[in-house]
Design goal:
384 residues, alpha/beta, Rossmann fold, 2 domains, seven-stranded parallel β-sheet, six-stranded parallel β-sheet, 15 helices
Length: 384
């Protein structure tokens, strides 16, 4: 059986907390390949006491999670040990440590070379050694514009470009990233985000009781699911809540101090993080879904991960004019200004306007199937 090495963008602890592109693709990959998943390391320059405490806590918290996740014999989670410093001599030492540990794994499992290496996060230790690992094919699955993400140092952006130039294939999820990476590497394909249709079983959702924290929220539920990151337009959501005071903006996702401070209105409700298996039950009881993202440099490179999950319920979806959203103009109400955004939400709530209502059920089901993760994986697998 073929072997795949993945330089991941998640740690084991976060694996089930944030069900996204990478976890879903790994679920499919282990059906066809032996997968060696190197969890993301986030080295920071901190004091020795903090390092030791974090390391001990990490070992304890990961043990049980790792055991349950590795019941699938073809999935191997790998936790590399490196120094928690990123520059100078430590970067050099870390690259040697990572390479040594990967070679040790290859000897243990009698692997002469990997059939594919997939890079999903351009960390320095990845950039410095990925080209030295024997493999038939090296792939960069790129879903972020690191240059415009203030959570990453400039070094990550340089790594991103260097890896994109050197791999055999770049896979981009958004139009903007595709066009940018095309200038660095002509071997590029676009595979957008998708939907896990099995998680949206109609019978399970239909028979489920309305969640308790939704019961006291009346009609006109305007829903956003996701993070409160640099693309999230706080001013737009605040304006929406003020202009539609008889409605309630329901926010599902990890709350942040900034979000609580900027969205402190009576008709904005934070429900917190929800496990992905219960999200469909919440979504069934919403009236309108919104994608309120800024059209800044980072936002232009975002393909909204919840797009097809919103569309699944055939309820109105209102979004700002993100480049990737324009491709689905037939299904989504696209706003080019804040005023138009509010109007489209109002029209959806009060006038019952819904682009999805007139689409034939059979055609719509086929559309969803074409955008399922199963379909995305079939395309992904062709390039391995």
């Amino acid at each position: 059986m073929k072997n795949i090495l993945i330089f991941g963008s998640f740690s084991v602890r976060d694996w089930e907390l944030n069900r996204q592109r990478q976890q879903t693709l790994v679920d499919f990959l282990v059906k066809d390949f032996n997968v060696f998943y190197i969890e993301r390391i986030n080295p920071k320059t901190v004091g020795i006491r903090v390092i030791v405490k974090a390391f001990i806590k990490r070992l304890i918290s990961v043990r049980n999670i790792k055991k349950s996740l590795t019941n699938e014999k073809r999935l191997h989670f790998i936790q590399l040990i490196i120094f928690p410093f990123q520059k100078g001599i430590f970067r050099f030492i870390n690259s040697k440590l990572v390479f040594f540990q990967i070679k040790k794994i290859m000897r243990k499992y009698k692997i002469e070379y990997f059939d594919s290496i997939i890079v999903s996060h351009p960390a320095s230790y990845v950039n410095d050694i990925f080209n030295k690992i024997p493999a038939k094919k090296k792939i960069y699955d790129c879903v972020q514009r690191f240059e415009f993400n203030r959570n990453y140092p400039a070094e990550t952006s340089r790594n991103d470009k260097n890896i994109a130039e050197k791999v055999d294939l770049v896979i981009a999820d958004s139009i903007t990233i595709f066009n940018e990476k095309m200038k660095l590497n002509k071997n590029i394909v676009r595979i957008p985000q998708g939907i896990d249709i099995e998680n949206y079983d109609r019978n399970r959702i239909k028979d489920a009781v309305i969640p308790g924290d939704l019961m006291n929220i009346g009609n006109y539920r305007i829903c956003y699911i996701g993070g409160f990151h640099q693309c999230f337009d706080f001013d737009l959501v605040r304006k929406l809540a003020k202009d539609i005071h008889e409605g309630t903006v329901v926010l599902i996702g990890r709350e942040t101090p900034e979000a609580k401070k900027k969205l402190n209105l009576n008709n904005i409700v934070f429900l917190g993080w929800k496990h992905y298996t219960v999200l469909p039950i919440y979504m069934r009881h919403m009236d309108v879904f919104i994608i309120p993202y800024l059209l800044n440099e980072r936002g232009k490179g975002v393909f909204p991960t919840k797009l097809f999950e919103y569309l699944y319920f055939r309820k109105p979806v209102v979004s700002t004019a993100l480049p990737d959203i324009l491709e689905y103009n037939e299904y989504v109400c696209v706003a080019h200004t804040d005023e138009e955004f509010v109007k489209l939400v109002k029209d959806s709530l009060y006038k019952g306007e819904n682009k999805l209502g007139s689409i034939d059920r059979g055609l719509f089901d086929q559309f969803m199937k074409n955008n399922s993760w199963e379909s995305r994986y079939k395309e992904f697998k062709k390039h391995l």
